[in-house]
Design a protein that fits this description.
Elements (H helix, E strand, L loop, with lengths): L1 H13 L6 H4 L1 E3 L3 E4 L7 H18 L7 E5 L3 H7 L1 H6 L5 E5 L5 E5 L4 H13 L3 E4 L2 E3 L6 E4 L2 E4 L24 H6 L23 E2 L8 H4 L2 H4 L9 E2 L2 E2 L16 H17 L3 E5 L13 H9 L4 H16 L7 E6 L16 E6 L15 H17 L3 E6 L15 H10 L5 E5 L11 H11 L6 H13 L3 H19 L4 E2 L2 E2 L8 H18 L3 H20 L1 H10 L4 H17 L5 H13 L4 E4 L20 E2 L5 E19 L9 E8 L5 E10 L6 E3 L1 E19 L2 E2 L5 E2 L2 E2 L1 E4 L8 E2 L2
Parallel strand pairs: 2-3, 3-5, 10-13, 13-14, 14-15, 15-16, 16-17
Antiparallel strand pairs: 1-8, 4-5, 4-9, 6-7, 11-12, 18-19, 20-22, 21-29, 22-26, 22-30, 23-24, 23-26, 25-31, 27-28
């Protein structure tokens, strides 16, 4: 016993601290000093040390006399502590954090960013600092915190991690072009045009796309205004002509068998890569709204050899680019699209090792995870797109759409869908992808969703979405008010989950979603009234709660014709609802919140339609059914790409003898079926116009009118027009639109030609 006592007494004398420090782990109480070595440190490692010093002071207040050390980067202590073998094994973004027996903390990572990420991991995951938005951080206050023994080794699942959000309040960007926020959340791409914005070496540089852009880049690499006059043969032959289809050329198809086009593309990409050597991905991709593959003999022969899949032409073209540049730029991947016309994978062609594909989840249903058995559209995306492409290449980049650009102010039934989707994506690729998100901060799950996506991009398996949602609401909206906002999200999610509704897409909500219906909206309204009361003492939190409330108010406003009686029964007045919503939008617009001017226009439009009692079977974006009866053919009801009905209710029964309808969109010449029904009570329906087929008219008509004289006048209070999918001249199925409907019109509106 005497020997053991002597041994521990000697050890305590030799080591700083007390003998109990050997087994106490890390107990931080403002008693740690950051040690780094400036001579050998790179800029990101110096940032790591500076950030640790800054936030330790914020967390613990005035720091005490240092008893312990945090060794940052390639200090001599870290070299001895970790050893050469471990240090040499670290990947570029991998890091280790480990405590010593006496309680010091050693953190070190691969270069250039690993050590910086280690510092942010310590501050965020272990000490509780959160950088939710560029203008709002949460820093806990600790007297002391017991971290125990630390032994961590981390590296990201995805190598390409851009921010998903765009502009947020007060002109501050949510990650895009904000290198500090991106780095603090372990992102490594600026998310913007690579010619203009980069994460500096202070934050570790970035894994980024080459200019000219990260998508749709061929029309920028080969711009029509520069090349078309001299080389029209580089563009697709379509109906006997070479055309760029528009001044920008973004919708143009190219003659992908043209060797002149290939060589000029290679030349231009090479120059970009020389000018921007940090680039790791190059977009060799089609534009938006392309029409058809080139009809020249060589392109058509190639197309048939690839099973009639246009993606084969793009792989064929991109393989040549990759082959020409592989020796000079061995770390670069040349990425083409699986998007709209190129979505289906080809046959009879191999994808080169340095070539890959960016797969876009265009038009896919995301009210439920893609892999959910109830999400038929999502399941088909996995089985018919992801799995076949994965057999062709491991160089897959994802482009997902996690908001509704058709109406960016809709509620999102479940931002946590991205948790399961990102887990699924990680089984197909380790490159990563871009989650296209809302550009505003009030709806579609913002600003929570952008912060959540950053978490997921490091490792989706480490993310517990429910916990993060609760935490975010508590910190961002206030401890008390935030609970009611978290309950609102749960309400939407549980309502949607119970219904099994998946038809929530990039364009908006399609069909009758329970989470958007009156019972859920009234419950939401009650939760927000409580949240507003509890946040009233804190001006900033109160404004954030009002921001979150706006989509619920907006829903009540644009559904006023259908819900008027029930809302008035609950004491909701249309004038007060409108003025309250609009005044807050105006305030936020003056403060620089992105898209508020657009939202104000949508608020005004909904208010202007408040007396038109219209409903529809499917809702899409901002295309209210009332727009089909507002007297303006420039506005219209849009049902998406499925059959739908749209109806109007008159204030009193009326006698009608003629129904004139503009049933086409801006790209005319559709063939479609429709019928018109009438009712006196909205329950029993009878035919006004039996099922009819509309044939295409002249090709240059902007729209045309179907005019139906009834055999005899009919008394109706409700008129419902049912429209089926429409077929374009080339056989493709397109969207269902009711531009305008007139009753007892004396003179038809004139035809209008395309401009």
């Amino acid at each position: 016993m005497k020997f053991r006592f002597f041994f521990f007494t000697l050890l305590a004398t030799l080591l700083p601290g007390t003998a109990t420090d050997l087994h106490a782990g890390v107990v931080m109480a403002g008693n740690y000093k950051v040690e780094d070595v400036l001579v050998e440190s790179n800029p990101a490692e110096r940032t790591a040390a500076d950030e640790l010093r800054l936030y330790l002071h914020k967390i613990f207040g005035k720091l005490k006399v240092a008893r312990y050390r945090i060794y940052v980067g390639y200090t001599e202590e870290n070299k001895r502590f970790f050893g050469e073998e471990l240090i040499n094994s670290l990947d570029d973004e991998e890091f280790v954090i480990k405590s010593s027996p006496r309680g010091d903390i050693h953190l070190l990572g691969g270069r250039p960013r690993g050590t910086l990420y280690a510092a942010y991991w310590l501050l965020d995951r272990l000490l509780g600092v959160r950088w939710y938005t560029p203008d709002f951080e949460y820093v806990p206050s600790h007297e002391s915190i017991d971290l125990g023994d630390i032994d961590l080794r981390q590296k990201p699942v995805f190598s390409y991690r851009p921010p998903s959000g765009r502009d947020l309040p007060y002109g501050v960007n949510m990650g895009r072009n904000n290198p500090q926020w991106s780095a603090r959340n372990l992102l490594n791409d600026s998310g913007a045009n690579p010619r203009r914005h980069h994460i500096s070496q202070q934050y570790g540089g970035e894994f980024t796309w080459s200019p000219p852009y990260r998508c749709h880049a061929l029309h920028l690499l080969i711009p029509p205004d520069k090349y078309f006059k001299q080389h029209p043969e580089w563009w697709a032959l379509y109906k006997g002509e070479r055309t760029t289809r528009g001044a920008r050329g973004v919708s143009a198809d190219y003659c992908l068998s043209s060797q002149g086009l290939v060589q000029e593309t290679i030349k231009n990409i090479r120059q970009y890569l020389l000018d921007y050597p940090m680039s790791r991905l190059v977009s060799v991709q089609e534009g938006d709204a392309t029409v058809a593959a080139c009809e020249c003999e060589q392109c058509q022969a190639l197309l048939q050899s690839f099973g009639g899949k246009e993606s084969g032409l793009w792989i064929y073209f991109t393989n040549q680019v990759g082959e020409a540049l592989k020796e000079e730029f061995p770390e670069v991947k040349f990425i083409t699209f699986a998007y709209t016309r190129s979505m289906a994978p080809p046959v009879n062609i191999e994808v080169a090792p340095n070539v890959g594909v960016q797969i876009c989840a265009w038009g896919k249903s995301r009210g439920l995870p893609y892999a959910d058995p109830r999400n038929k559209n999502g399941n088909e995306f996995i089985s018919e797109v992801l799995q076949p492409w994965r057999k062709l290449t491991e160089n897959i980049v994802f482009w997902d759409y996690i908001y509704s650009f058709g109406d960016e102010f809709l509620q999102d039934p479940n931002p946590l869908v991205s948790v399961e989707n990102m887990k699924m994506f990680s089984t197909f690729t380790k490159i990563g992808g871009y989650m296209e998100n809302s550009a505003d901060s009030i709806s579609n799950g913002q600003p929570f969703k952008t912060w959540l996506i950053a978490r997921l991009q490091w490792n989706p398996e480490q993310v517990e979405g429910e916990e993060l949602l609760e935490e975010f609401c508590r910190h961002y909206y206030g401890a008390e008010a935030g609970q009611f906002i978290a309950d609102w999200w749960k309400l939407l999610r549980e309502t949607n989950e119970k219904q099994g509704f998946s038809e929530f897409r990039a364009g908006g909500s399609l069909g009758k979603a329970d989470f958007e219906d009156l019972p859920a909206v009234l419950q939401s309204q009650g939760l927000f009234q409580k949240a507003l009361t509890l946040s009233a003492s804190d001006a900033e939190q109160y404004l954030r709660v009002k921001d979150a409330y706006m989509p619920v108010q907006y829903r009540m406003l644009n559904q006023w014709p259908a819900w008027q009686a029930e809302l008035q029964e609950k004491g909701i007045d249309i004038e007060k609802l409108y003025t309250t919503l609009r005044s807050h939008a105006e305030l936020r617009d003056k403060q620089g919140m992105k898209l508020m001017d657009k939202f104000i226009k949508q608020i005004d439009s909904s208010y202007a339609l408040r007396n038109i009692k219209a409903q529809a079977s499917r809702l899409y974006g901002t295309y209210s059914p009332a727009l089909a009866y507002d007297g303006n053919p420039e506005t219209h009801y849009h049902a998406g790409s499925s059959a739908a009905w749209c109806q109007i209710e008159f204030d009193e029964p009326r006698l009608i003898s003629r129904i004139s309808s503009i049933t086409t969109g801006s790209r005319n010449n559709y063939e479609h079926d429709y019928k018109v029904s009438g009712s006196l009570d909205g329950k029993a329906w009878f035919d006004l116009v039996p099922l009819k087929t509309v044939q295409p008219q002249e090709e240059d008509d902007e729209y045309f009118v179907v005019d139906d004289q009834l055999p005899a006048p009919q008394e109706v209070k409700f008129v419902r027009t049912t429209m089926n999918k429409v077929k374009m001249r080339d056989g493709r199925i397109n969207d269902v639109v009711l531009r305008e409907q007139y009753f007892n019109l004396e003179e038809l509106p004139p035809k209008r030609k395309k401009k």
